[in-house]
Amino acid sequence: MKKTLLAGVSAGLLVAAASAAHAQSIDYGSLEQLFNEPVTTSATGAPQRSTEAPVDMTIISAADIQRSGATDLPTILSRVAGLDVESRGAGASDVSVRGYNQAMSPRLLVLINGRQVYLDHYGYTAWATLPVQLSEIRQIEVVKGPNSALFGFNAVGGVVNIITVNPKFDDTGDITLRTGSARYGEVSAAKSFKVGERFSARVSAGAAKSDEYENTVGVAKSQLNDPSRVTANIDTVTQLTDKVELRVEGSYSNVQVSDMLSNYAYSPSKYLTSSVKGALTAETKLGQLQLSAYQNDLTAKHLILGQNARFENQIRVVSVQDLFKIGAKHTLRVGAEYRHNEVNTAPIGGAQVSYDVLSASAMWNWAITDKLAFTAAGRYDSLDLSREGTFPAGSPPLGNGYWDRKIEEPSYNLGLVWRATDVDTFKATAARGVQVPTLVDLGALQARVTVGPYTIGLAGNPTLEPAIITNYQLTYERALPALKAEVSAKAFVQKTEDVKGQPTSAQIDVAATLVSLPVLSYRNIGDSKMTGFELAASGQLTGGFRWNADWTHTEVDDEPTAGFSPLIRTAAYAETTPENSGNVSLGWTGGAWTVDGYAHFVGEHRAYALYSAAAAPNLVDIDAYAALGGRVARTFDHGVTVALSGQNLGDNRQRQSAGLEVERRVYLSVSKTW
Amino acid sequence: MSKTKPAAALAAALLTIAPLSAHADAAKDLQIAGRALTFLENGPTGKQVLGVVFDPSKPASVAEKNAVMAAIGGGMNAGALTLTAKPVEAGAVSGVSGVAALYVTTGVNVGAAAKAKKIITIGSDASCAASGACVMSVSADPKVEIIVNRSAAAAVGAVFKSAFRMMIREV
What we know:
The complex is a heterodimer. By secondary structure, chain A is mainly beta. Chain A has one domain: TonB-dependent receptor, beta-barrel domain (Maltoporin, Chain A), CATH 2.40.170. Chain A contains six helices and 42 strands. By secondary structure, chain B is α/β, with parallel strands linked by helices. Chain B has one domain: 3-Layer(aba) Sandwich (Rossmann fold). Chain B has helices spanning 4-16, 26-37, 59-72, 111-117, 126-131, 150-155, 162-167, and strands at 46-54, 76-78, 81-89, 101-104, 121-123, 136-139, 145-148, 169-170.
């Protein structure tokens, strides 16, 4: 079902061309049809065939998404080999790559058409806020392993880049009505259109709601929300001249979900997001030049330690890059980026924490021979942190100057791709990624809590060091054209230095003074190592059948610094990472009928749980489980499709994480495409 | 059978499946050729005629020409193009007209004549582009491969879009 490959390095966007005009944005459809395989720019920034990308990448196609029967992105991602998805509720999940999953997972960078949609004040993704309808996604590119040299800070565990249809090239339209158990209701619509020869647009909107999973684990009602979301998006492409294109996108989302906060307590969270982005691309004698800028605005309301917290986060990003080819063998990309990120302190306000990042990056792809290619990408980020505002009573005697700090880190991706034969490909990759502390970690969290008879401060730590993730991987892929199948085997080793530990009432981080309270904070608590392998196979059979199977094994070893316990710092990844996970799927298409079934296996592991705001999170056992899903659909005339689908079909209720137990949900949908 | 035997059998089967030899499938190759032409700057669109160059003294060339003509038939859609074909004897290339490109059968070299006419030449044999006899070589199986000879392309004034250039092999 999925096109799996391996890839590894840089940034980019655009560049390619279509049949008619001098197009600048990439025409995925034409290139995919030409090369008979998916095309991506998420590996190096340059357009590449998926099988030749020097990173470990899985591409989920629009057809895969439709056949999944899923109503959300985490369900779709859970069926990708090596991705760990923990459900927190009917509208919230955390996703990670090869372990290290956690509440408000900060190791996965998520983008839509290259714009980051993960929430940058705390570096996590509230999936329901993503302003995209499943029907308008062309493909989802999942990069496993660090890709900071392309995307910058926080592309450490992996990257999910969601590519929508492009109104310039794709004439699409869809409206979907869906109902289901637990009072599920959804409507979504997406349509692209052209006005004249030079202007095209895509507009989309959707809304959904349902009941939250039944609360069988004892979470206070006040900590839960029935999930609902409203999202909208507009995407326009204007061909200014034959060689210059302007793409402008805007988005909006209004969402409420039951979130699991990073201390593993539930919060009835609400999000309001908006964004605007412009990208100017020109094909010049110097290469393909692109200037892009965007702004993301976020209002996030949480219940933190029983206190209402409202974060107002804004990021502004301006980047420029040039992509060009020298001679027959060398493709290069050079780029620079400026980023501003700011958020207020909360739950106790009165101050603003922000940083500015200047970055320079470059990528070099060298076709050494017909069979051998080498890619090197590097990036250097320089971050300036600052704080403005007042301090609450009882804070340590520090001034705003304590936040005047610079973080400077390089990152790289190296990849060697050897096409030994027409069907055998070997890849070797090495990468260094940087997980910069979030603004919340660095000081935006500012609270006061009562523990027994004591009052304690809770605050971010501006001296927190970034976590450095190095990853090495070997991959072997073999096409089996006689069987219409492909197999792959991968082995990987990863090390995370300066793992971030959460505040805990079991360990005071800043001692009390005569004028200040003791403080709990984030700390770097040591290192962690992960090794593992992944086996995957997929193919097609006669009679319209398709199949997929994969198995991922990961072993994590936490190596804490003396004086710190990963267990009490809610960073015991050796305990919380499942050693084994896998997927099996079988599908069939015959005439107007399509039938697909999915089984997702997760081995036994442990997970943090905190059901009472006054307690500390503790580890609970999660037994091995298999989540079953499926879809039966029939297509009628005039592009009408009726589908019956379901997720978690094996049990009425299933424990997949330490949070709310996942319920069986079934859906009936009617969609029309044109 | 023990648990290990099926796995061992599968592994043995995978290892013994030899790579398929390149199989010239005229229809697939023509699809690639037609779609590749749309990535030319100011490239052709709509209905276009492909000249199929053959050497009547070479049976293999004639057979390939016949296969190409049959594959295109009354018209073949390839991306934004609808291709029709007409046979062109190698010796007649210098006088050919009304074609968007020349599809050169294996073993035929009309590079000089095509350059003089500023016509793009496409072959299904990789050596055609590698040697400079063709501007471009295409093959669909077992994996799509496109080779463009930069000097041959420059000689006929063919400029491919940069994204396309980054995804193919240039010599």
